[in-house]
Every structure is written in structure tokens, then in C-alpha cells.
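Request: Not sure, any thoughts?
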Amino acid sequence: LKPLRIDVVGAHEIGLIEPEETGKTFTENAELKARLAAEASGLPALSDDSGMAVSALGGAPGIYSARWAGPKKDFSAAIKRVNDALLMTGSSDRSCSFICVLSLAWPDGHIESFEGRVSGTAVFPPRGRNGFGYDPIFEPENCGKTFAEMDMDEKNSYSHRARAFQKMINYFDQQT
């Protein structure tokens, strides 16, 4: 957010609790969290919802990506769960996407949302030690390495989150 010259304060820093994600889409969950934070704080609030959507699994884990890792956020278990689910389908389709929706809500109820998406392939076994979550099994199209094999700058050149932030920055550039 540096280009926007915004001072960022985390929800935890001002005592906000993260609400239950009850939406059916990334956008619904991101907007729910941003709207509640803006109402509770009286400040503009930015939230995101993101995850990995695997085509052969009907888009799963999708909005449940973090929940597939369980309460201890064990993504090695989540990665195994994705692999096991893919094997159970019998499909050779390993196409998938990382999706991120950023929602910015104002205390007056106005909200803007921005989606970033990157397509790729789920690869097994996992590769790389960088990143987090599903990064070791996500290889962006035409790349040849997983997010976990990239340094942060290279990952950000592909990242779904970086694409969503760029859309938000472009929106504000057009508003001024």
C-alpha cells in the first residue's frame, strides 16, 4: 500500500476479532470481514479472502483452503488432502488457480472489491521451502517452478494477491 501513502493498523492491534466466514464466495467473505471491521473501528478497513481452487475437485478447497489445514494450520496435511482427493477422482486434470479478493470498506457502508487470480498446475510431490500454505504444490502457467521455489520478488510477479493489490491501486489512481 506504499504507493497510496496509507498508514496501516492491524485489526488485532485495535482489538478487533476476526468474524466467522459465512460467505459462499471469496468476495462475500472478504466483504463481510471488511464491512464488520469498518463498522467496529469507524475507519476504512481492508480485508482479503484467498485460496486455491482445483478444477478436478470442483473448485475445492476454494474458500475452505485454510480450513483444510485444520485448527493448527497444518498445510502439509492440507496438501496431502488435496493430493488424496485428486487421486480419488481418477482424473489427470491438475489445473488450478490461486484466487484473492481484497475488499475495502468505509464506515458509511461503501465497499469496493478487487480480484486477483493466477492459473497453474497442482504438482506432486511438493517442491520448495519458501512461501506458505499451498505454495509448494502450485506451479503458475509457463513457469516451471512452484511458488515455494521462488523468492518473494519473483512470486509477487505472478501472485494472485499482488494482482488484486495492483487492481486496487489502479482504481485509486483513476479516482484521483
The radius of gyration is 17 Å.
